[in-house]
Design goal:
By secondary structure, the chain is of the alpha/beta class. Helix content is 21%, strand content 37%. It is globular.
Length: 448
Amino acid sequence: MVSVTETNNRYESDFHDLVITSSGLDSDWLGSLRRDAWSVFQSLGIPTPSRGNERWKYTNLTPLARSEFYLRYDPDGLDLLLGELNSHAPWHKNWVTLVFVDGRYDETLSVLDLPNGLTVGNLGTVNSLGSEVVRQNLGHLAKVESDAFVALNTAFLNDGAFVRVDDDANIELPVHLLFITTDGQRPGVTYPRVLVTAGTNSRFTLIESYVGLGGRQRFTDAVTEIELDSGAHLRHFRMLLENEHTFHIGITRVKQSRDSSFDSLSFSTGPAIGRNDVHTLLDGPGSVSTLQGLYMTTNRQHLDNHISTTHSKPNATSHQYYKGILAGRSRAVFSGRVLVERDAQKTYADQKDLNLCLSRGVEIDTKPSLEIYADDVKCSHGATAGHVDANSIFYLRSRGVDLETARRMVIRGFADEIIEKIELDPLRDYVESITDRLLPLFRFEDAA
């Protein structure tokens, strides 16, 4: 078995090779950012079970810490045509799409027909996009000191997606960032990075998709930073669709100014161990944060939703609403937190996590929490976990529905409350097709 020390040595070797061979973001400030991040990662290391490590209390990363992954500098070409992508990932020909294969931007698979007011590109050519904007914002929200995986991602930052929406721009075409991982000769690691800045009173839709092709073990360490100026409105979708041997750590940091709106929905299936770590900072009166998600786990998969919102200004609103469907011997975690600071009067916040447990072997650890220092607020939280209601099955059977169809109807009905919130038709159709394809795996013969 590979030791944790040997794994850290593998990251160190890759880091030194990257510093020597990197031809992407070459600048003094980036080099300094990388080196500082590497120093932080060396001091923190991958978090493994220890007393007092509350953030990782329910997720054991020892399998990740003891696995060796290799950075692929020159990945093999992806034998995939542009027209075939829709069979592997969410896709629409009219979307603005940036495709990254094994951590590198692929111009041949990308679709960049940009409307006025929108700037997108890969961070590897950031000088042509306006390096000062990136320099001012990159690492501003996702601070390397706060998280080992942010530090690791930043240390290996060499490419990624940059999205800028101008003031007063209303971008009707969704922006799709598609990160594809493929099989190599050895288990690979990728470090997707996304930087989004939205101007005053702008509106647009952003889709992040993480898709795995092939079945080899791999590790994805993804970091997204989003800053919304006053009155900006962003619809955000995050699709986690990697294979069952993948380790996926996804970190999203959002800062919202006055009257801005961040409406985010995640759909997660697949990884052996996955984590969706989202924090929104409501830093302006009238700002609204809506975080929703559907996660489906089976076999021995483990999915961790670490969701937090900070209210730092008055008259802001936040919602957290997640649903889980668990089968086999899988495990899920929901750690929800709302912090209301002293000056954030007139805050409205609610949290809810609902779980459907389809067998006796599943486990859900759900912990919604409120931390309130203001006295004029309206906040609530709740969580449930239970088996399928036998009365629902009996009702359907009594009306001539066969048992297998009745099972699927009940499970699909539970999921549809989240799926129907996807207003983007092609994306909703894709999620529905994935859900229908997975339903045969989600059985509840062993449920009480």
